[in-house]
TrEMBL record:
Belongs to the nucleobase:cation symporter-2 (NCS2) (TC 2.A.40) family. Azg-like subfamily. It is a multi-pass membrane protein. It comes from Halobaculum litoreum. One of its GO terms (biological process) is purine nucleobase transmembrane transport. One of its GO terms (cellular component) is plasma membrane. This is NCS2 family permease. Keywords: Cell membrane, Membrane, Transmembrane, Transmembrane helix, Transport. Its main location: membrane. Pfam families: Xan_ur_permease. The chain crosses the membrane at residues 73-93, 100-118, 124-143, 155-179, 185-212, 219-238, 272-288, 353-372, 403-431, 451-472. InterPro entries: Azg-like, Azg-like_bact_archaea, NCS2. It is found in: Cell membrane. PANTHER family: XANTHINE/URACIL PERMEASE C887.17-RELATED (PTHR43337), XANTHINE_URACIL PERMEASE C887.17-RELATED (PTHR43337:SF1).
Length: 473
């Protein structure tokens, strides 16, 4: 029996109405649409100090290691985590879904946990590992539906849109299109005079055009094109090379030892209350982001049953959980299923073979890790704006004509970008939900779990902002 026939039997090509060529093309399509994460994840997770190429920025800072080398370390870890999770998806779940460290979750890691809350990055990694292990346990015992039922539906539907706005403002700020202002908090940057902003605007609209045309890999192409424009602009003297270019001459490094296992130190230094709330938020966002993506892409592929559920959803959820755990142990934020998997499904991908191709391409990409440090921050953050805008479409699922739904959903969406925190947005939605339901006389729609979650977040805000624990997270 030849390899092609073995693959056909293992992945059930005949039953799914597909073939090897279709699956390979589908895998390539999915990889191209989600491969931007190799550039973007390091640019978000890696922090900077005074004098670094990105200035002072929250995130992973390894003592004695340069910014460029840290970027390459995180790029390596990103590829390994994505390959492991997607390989499990291919061989165990046998679904055509690609996985990698998720946008939004990495921003929560860097800007909220490490930045706003002041938690060491090692402790943030420990929270990712614990969340992954918790996810594995709940998936193994089939407790998914019980966890889902504990959260208000409006909050679940609004999280994606809120994260989209959060990612967008992070991206626009990195590009110099949005800047801080003492009078209005934020305002339009010098888009007609700042070289970074000019190059960013050109690159952003080029990426929009490619994306609108349905070009596979449009985000990656847009990032690379913007990077080239920046280098050309610096060469002809239109701006400072330090601002317009990345670390092109950075020495390649595949030594991830400063990151791998760092979560152990983080566990030792964790404050119990703060740590549990961080784990809770990682878990919440990952859980519903993954579940929503699986159902959404599963619908495109025709996998859903008559009740709108994805059969054996525990298997792809397990792949996500293992990927998250491995990624946290190695040094990256939470792994999740990518909505870009729909690109491969639209090409006809129906089996785990699609995911297998994606996993193998992630491994092959390890040879190109040095490129990650050569991409300047503003170019990589184009992906945040494009994906952030795409994520806004989730807002149509909210029943805005019902005020008891609109208030918690609106609070979830608006608080995230305005406070620079995914956690605060989720908390605002959860706290407001039972209150407005009670005020509207719809007590029957409130479950004890809603009150318990709302009470927990109120307590957290008292502790966090009331000075109850001086110096605590």
């Amino acid at each position: 029996m030849g390899l092609q026939q073995q693959l056909a039997e293992y992945f059930e090509f005949e039953e799914l109405g597909t073939d090897l060529r279709t699956e390979v093309v589908a895998g390539l399509s999915t990889f191209l649409t989600m491969s931007y994460i190799v550039f973007v994840n390091p640019s978000i997770l890696v922090g900077g100090t005074e004098g670094s190429p990105v200035g002072v920025k929250p995130g992973i800072i390894v003592e004695g290691v340069s910014y460029a080398q840290t970027v390459q370390m995180v790029a390596v870890v990103t590829l390994i985590a994505a390959a492991v999770a997607t390989l499990i998806m291919a061989l165990y779940a046998k679904r055509p879904f690609g996985q990698a460290p998720g946008l939004g979750l990495n921003a929560f890691f860097a800007f909220t946990v490490v930045g706003a809350l002041g938690v060491p990055w090692e402790t943030a990694l420990a929270a990712v590992v614990v969340e992954g292990l918790l996810f594995i346990l709940l998936t193994a015992v089939g407790a998914r539906k019980y966890v889902i039922n504990a959260f208000p539906t409006p909050v679940k539907l609004a999280v994606g849109t809120g994260i989209g706005l959060f990612l967008t403002i992070i991206g626009l700020e990195a590009m110099g299109i949005v800047v801080d202002d003492p009078a209005t908090l934020v305002t339009l940057g010098a888009v007609a005079s700042d070289p970074v902003a000019i190059v960013s605007v050109v690159g952003l609209f080029l990426t929009f055009a490619l994306y609108a045309r349905g070009i596979r890999g449009s985000i990656v192409l847009g990032i690379l094109f913007t990077t080239v424009i920046g280098y050309v602009a610096a060469q002809v003297g239109l701006g400072s090379p330090a601002a317009l270019t990345g670390q092109l001459g950075a020495q390649a490094t595949y030594d991830i030892s400063p990151l791998a296992g760092a979560f152990v130190t983080g566990l030792q230094d964790a404050d119990a209350l703060a740590f549990s709330l961080i784990v809770f938020t990682f878990f919440f966002v990952d859980f519903f982001d993954t579940a929503g993506t699986l159902v959404g892409v599963g619908q495109v592929a025709g996998f859903l049953d008559e009740d709108g559920d994805l059969p054996e959803i525990e298997k792809p959820l397990m792949a996500d959980a293992v990927g998250t755990t491995v990624g946290g142990m190695l040094g990256t934020s939470t792994v999740t299923t990518y909505i870009e998997s729909a690109a491969g499904v639209e090409e006809g991908g129906r089996s785990g073979m699609t995911a297998l191709v994606v996993a193998l391409l992630f491994l092959v990409s390890l040879a190109f890790v040095p490129i990650a440090a050569a991409v300047p921050l503003y170019a990589s953050h184009i992906a945040l704006v494009v994906i952030g805008i795409v994520m806004l479409r989730n807002v149509v699922e909210v029943a805005w004509d019902d005020i008891t739904v609109a208030i918690p959903a609106g609070m979830t969406i608006l608080i995230m970008p305005f406070t620079y925190s995914i956690a605060y947005g989720i908390a605002a939605g959860i706290v407001s939900y039972p209150l407005v339901k009670l005020a509207a006389g719809r007590r029957g729609e409130i479950r004890p779990g809603h009150w318990a979650l709302a009470g927990a977040f109120v307590l957290y805000f008292v502790v966090r902002t009331g000075g109850v624990l001086t110096g605590a997270v």
